[in-house]
Amino acid sequence: MRGSGLKHAVTLSCKQHIAEIDAADWDTLAGKQASLSHAFLAALEYSGSVAPGTGWTPHHLALANITGELRAAMPLYLKQHSWGEYVFDWAWANAYAQHGLEYYPKLVSAIPFTPIPGPRLLGVNAEARQELAYAVHDIAMDSGVSSLHLLFIDEDEAKWLANAGFMIRHGVQFHWVNRDYAHFDAFLASLNHSKRKKIRQDRRRAAAHELEYRWLDGHTATEEDWRFFYRCYATTYAQHRSTPYLTPDFFTVLARNAPDNVRLLVASRSEQRIACAFFLADEEALYGRYWGASEFLPCVHFELCYYRAIEYCIEHDLSRFEGGAQGEHKLSRGLEPAVTRSAHWLADERFADAVDRFLERERMGIDFYLDELSERTPFQRTGS
Fold first, then answer.
1. Residue 66 confidence (pLDDT)
2. How many CB atoms lie within 10 A of CB 123?
3. pTM, two decimal places
4. End-to-end alpha carbon distance in the chain
5. Where in the chain is the domain with CATH 3.40.630.30?
6. pLDDT on residue 2
7. How far apart are CA 236 and CA 293, in angstroms?
8. CA dist list (Å): 324 to 11, 214, 239, 284, 286
9. Distances (CA, A) of 7 to 16, 157, 164
10. Series of mean pLDDT values for 10-residue runs along the chain (384 residues)
11. Nearest residue to 369 via CA among 325, 337, 323, 326
């Protein structure tokens, strides 16, 4: 391997199951982000949501020193498709097919079905993470796959991966940022008049349904709560003519093994459940993931998935609420644009050169888009 950051690392191994890596060792490297936890990845595998049959074959990397101490690690999957990634490369796959080349299988470092930004190069220090970037690049070159992709990486990793020969791609999500708001009305006061008025109208319309809202976690949610949520979750996919990525067991296993990292917000009328939203939570943030309802009620989606989530972050002193992938409509709900990053390596130099030129143009487009969004900020402008 190139570099000298891991002077004591002597073994780099590939694990077919996250259970082959000690949970405490993994979590020490991963930190406290809910979606990176050993319990989250294990629930995906145990439930069958992530498996060769679903097109996600685990190939997690573990780099240890001579005493067996885990020095660096990476969630890694051999993929047979591009579903469930939220960084879209379908056009690249189509270009390969048009030239009689195979794009799949490919290697992907990501949290399956979860577009939450965070580290993918897990290590005891920056040098370890940089060395892992070189190591996974070499693995991809030697494996015969068409490409390697690290999705929703952090800003430091983008630099390290660029150093290792990866192309960097930018995207945009929308996050709500807690500016030490004392309460929801203080947040509303920071918005311009039209957006403040719109949110108040949304909340009045939601309140007219006379629903009761309950926040639950893995300790307090019952089996019936989880069954109801899954019906809502599956219904939402069906309405979009799709099928759920996650099995019912995923949610119950995660709730059992990481009860402090899951949240359900249940809306009921006369003790009858009407709608439900599922979130991940950790010490820093709340992450919006899935929602659904047994009947359509205007503005309940915004109440469940945005306004109550923002209230929760204020009440629990969380730094931000991440609203998931895409969704420019979130801007008018007080969420702000945030740049996301991914890193890509393609084995075929001809395609790599074409993609590199495309990404350069795309990054310019993202910059223009961010400038445009800044002109449409929902917040009051300083001095206005």
1. 84
2. 24
3. 0.94
4. 56
5. 9-173+338-375, 179-318
6. 45
7. 8
8. 36, 22, 19, 16, 11
9. 26, 20, 18
10. 47 94 97 96 98 97 90 97 96 96 97 97 93 92 96 95 95 96 97 95 97 98 97 93 94 98 97 96 96 95 96 98 88 93 97 97 96 90 59
11. 337
Question: Which two tokens mark 311?
Answer: 């209230």
- In angstroms, the CA 234 to CA 359 distance is 35
Report which of 170, 161, 154, 117 is spatially closest to residue 360, judged by C-alpha positions: 170
CA angle 39, 42, 44 (to 5 degrees): 115
Bridge partners, residue 343, by sequence: 150, 168
Cα–Cα distance, 355 to 87 (Å, whole number): 14
Report residue 346 as tokens.
């393609």
Cα distance between residue 115 and residue 287, in whole Å: 10
Structure tokens at 212: 């009761």
Q: What are phi and psi of 33, to 5 degrees?
A: -70, 130
DSSP structural state of residue 333: G
Contact yes or no for 217/263 (Cβ under 8 A): yes
CA distance 248 to 229: 9
Nearest-angstrom CA–CA distance, 10 and 364? 42
At the fourth CATH level, the homologous superfamily of domain 9-173+338-375 is: Gcn5-related N-acetyltransferase (GNAT) (3.40.630.30)
105: preceding bond cis by omega (within 30 degrees): yes
In this structure, are residues 310 and 184 in contact, taking their beta carbons and an 8 Å threshold?
yes
**Burial status of residue 150 (CB atoms within 10 A of its CB: 0-12, 13-18, 19 or more):** buried
Extended beta strands in the chain, E state: 9-15, 56-58, 60-65, 70-74, 77-79, 106-109, 122-123, 147-153, 167-177, 212-217, 262-269, 272-281, 285-293, 320-322, 336-346
HEC letters along 272-310: EEEEEEEEEECCCEEEEEEEEECCCCCCHHHHHHHHHHH
Query: Under CATH, domain 179-318 is a member of which superfamily?
Result: Gcn5-related N-acetyltransferase (GNAT) (3.40.630.30)
Separation CA 18–CA 39 (nearest Å): 9
Distance from chain centroid for Cα 191 = 27
Tokens, residue 303: 């109440």
Judged by DSSP in three states, 191 sits in strand
